[in-house]
Amino acid sequence: MKEFDEFVTIMRRLRNECPWDKEQTHESLKKHFIEEAYEALEAIDRKNFNDLKGELGDVALQVVFHAIIAEEEKKFTLEEVFTAINEKLIRRHPHIYGDAVIHSGAEQIALWDKIKMSEGRMSVLEGIPNHYPALMKAEKVQKKAAKVGFEWETKEDVWKKVEEELSELHSAIKSGDAEHTHQEFGDVLFSLVNYARFIGVDSEESLHSTVQKFYTRFQYIEKRLQEQGKDIHKTSLAEMDALWNEAKKK
What is the spatial distance between Cα 188 and Cα 180, in angstroms, rounded to a whole number? Predict the structure, then answer.
C-alpha cells in the first residue's frame, strides 16, 4: 500500500533527522504506546470515528517506531513483524486455512488454547502481560484456570468466598498488620472479580464506568459552587453532599 510505504519512509527519516525521535528507545516509548492505545479506546467509547481514525494511526506509529529501533539493533525487521503475524494467523485458524471444523466461538477459543500450548507454552496461564491493569489481569487468570476445570460451581459459592475474604480483611485491619491488610485487600478484589465473571459483569469496565460517574458528578459540584461564587476549599461536606445528590437526580 502506497500510503503505508510513505508512512514508513517518513518514520525512518524522522528517526535519522529529528533530535527527539533519535533519542527514543523501546523503554522510553513504553508509556506512549499505552497512552495511544487508551486514547483509541476512548474514541471507541465516544463513537467518534474521525478521532478513532487518527488514534489508530498513532498506535501504528508506535508499532513501526519499535520495529525501526529493533532493525537498528539488528534484532528483527519490520517485514519480519508482519511475516510473524501472518504465520500466526494462518496457524491459529486451521478451520480457515486447514481441515479443522468448528461450529461456534467457544469451539474456536478452545482450539486456540490447544494451538497455543502446542507452540511451546508450559502453562495455561502464560501469555498474560504483566502490564495488564490489575482487574483485567485477575479476570484473565481466572478464565484461563476455569478452562481446565479449576472453577467454582455456582455464583453462590463465589459470593461465600467474597464474604470470607471480607471477614479476613476486617480481622487483618483490626490486627494492625499493614502487610497482612495489604494482602487481604487484594484477596477481596480478586474474589469480587471472580464474582463479576459469574454474573456477567466486566469488572474493569464496571469500575471505569463508576469512576467516570464520580468524575462527572464531582465536576457538577465544582461548576455549581463556581456559579454561586463559592470556594470549594471552604465549602462544607454537607453543602457538597447536597450538590452531589442534585447531580445524581440530573
Answer: 12
pLDDT of residue 213: 96
Does the structure show a pLDDT above 90 at 243? yes
CA end-to-end span of the chain = 50
The 10s digit of each residue's pLDDT in 173-201 is: 999 999 999 999 999 999 999 999 999 99
Provide the 10 A C-beta neighbour count for residue 160. Answer: 13
Distance CA 208, CA 78 (A): 35
**Alpha-carbon span 180 to 94, nearest angstrom:** 48
DSSP the chain: -HHHHHHHHHHHHHHHH-HHHHH--HHHHHHHHHHHHHHHHHHHHTT-HHHHHHHHHHHHHHHHHHHHHHHHTTS--HHHHHHHHHHHHHHT-HHHHSS----SHHHHHHHHHHHHHHTT-SSTTTT--TTS-HHHHHHHHHHHHHHTT---S-HHHHHHHHHHHHHHHHHHHHHT-HHHHHHHHHHHHHHHHHHHHHTT--HHHHHHHHHHHHHHHHHHHHHHHHHTT--GGG--HHHHHHHHHHHHH-
pLDDT tens string 144-175: 999 889 999 999 999 999 999 999 999 999 99
Query: Measuring CA to CA, which residue among 149, 144, 146, 188 is closest to residue 168?
Result: 188
> Is the model's pLDDT at 110 over the cut of 90?
no
Predicted TM-score (pTM) of the model is 0.75
